[in-house]
Amino acid sequence: MTAQALRVFVNAEGVDVPAGASALDCVRAWRGDEGDAVALGKRVITDSRGLPIQAATPARAGSIYRTVTSRERDA
Fold this sequence. Notes:
Layout: E1 5-10, E2 13-18, H1 23-30, H2 32-39, E3 43-46, E4 64-69
Parallel strand pairs: 1-4
Antiparallel strand pairs: 1-2, 3-4
Helix pairs in contact: 1-2
């Protein structure tokens, strides 16, 4: 038996991911290069309210994620 797929939304685009996927997995399923930018700290994942969330946050069916430029600057 395979894991059930979840429908989530990344930057207003529907993406199907396996159950147990993280927010970062969802972003990578949408666009691999965007997921790499999140992993490198260049981009941040936010929830539907625009609040930053951890990349490891478990996805739920209907989750809405957005990616934005990281505000952190190199010293």
